[in-house]
Amino acid sequence: MHAMLALAAGRLSEADALIRKAYAFGERAQPEAAVPVYRLQRYILNDFSGQIEEVEPEIRDLVVEYPARPVFRCAPARLHAVLGRPSEVTETLDELAADDFSILPFDQEWLFGMSLLAEAAVVVGDADAAPILYRLLLPWAALNVVDQAEGIRGSLSRYLGMLAASMQFPANCRVCCRSRHRLVADYTHFRSRRPPKRPKIARKPLRG
After folding, report:
1. Could you tell me the domains of the chain?
2. Which candidate in 25, 76, 81, 124 could, as Cys together with 120 as Cys, close a disulfide (CB 3.0–4.6 Å)?
3. How would you label 180-203 residue by residue, b for 16+ Cβ within 10 Å and e otherwise?
4. What pTM did the predictor assign?
5. Which residues pair with 146 in a beta bridge?
6. Distance between CA 49 and CA 135 in Å, rounded?
């Protein structure tokens, strides 16, 4: 947890030391949990320091070693996008996009994985995946992306903005323009809604 917070705050040297320290304990106590956390935290750390290619083998191995956690398939997609391998990113997006990305369980890791895919789709300009990801993520625009203790990826609105900016439709395409206007209208409607009022709780007076 401390390493995750240090990464989110940009304290990279501190995060590096904390990641190593936590893994030294976790590897012996709970390796099934410690290994993925360690590798994804190193992934984020190396990304911040401009050395993301160094962790590629470990991130790729997560997909094989933990097939029951499809979220790990999202990390290589973004990694390949950053490394300039659009064909590999597109292949992964095509595999995961079936039935509105339903292969990703709607659990505490869903936003984390979807944010990785959103960024990957924007980087490679995947015009098929971007609108789907936008639509699926839109209802959660007010949330932050956190997968404890793998990492914090900040406000989901950031990834919605990236997706919206990437969806550049031709001006003479009526169908595409209608789709774009619908997405913008949906987002405007969502942002204009007020949160529901909390119900008032009747409190009994205290007796002396």
Report:
1. 2-169 (1.25.40.10)
2. 81
3. beebeeebeeeeeeeeeeeeeeee
4. 0.79
5. 152
6. 32
| Cα dihedral 140/74/180/170 (nearest 10) | 160
8 Å CB contact between 114 and 137: yes
The per-residue pLDDT string of the chain (208 residues; one tens digit each, 9 = 90 and over) reads 899 999 999 999 999 999 999 999 998 889 889 999 999 999 999 999 999 999 999 999 999 999 999 999 999 999 999 999 999 999 999 999 999 999 999 999 999 999 999 999 999 999 999 999 999 999 999 999 999 889 999 999 999 999 999 987 444 433 344 444 444 444 444 444 444 444 454 555 555 4
In the DSSP assignment, the letter for residue 171 is T
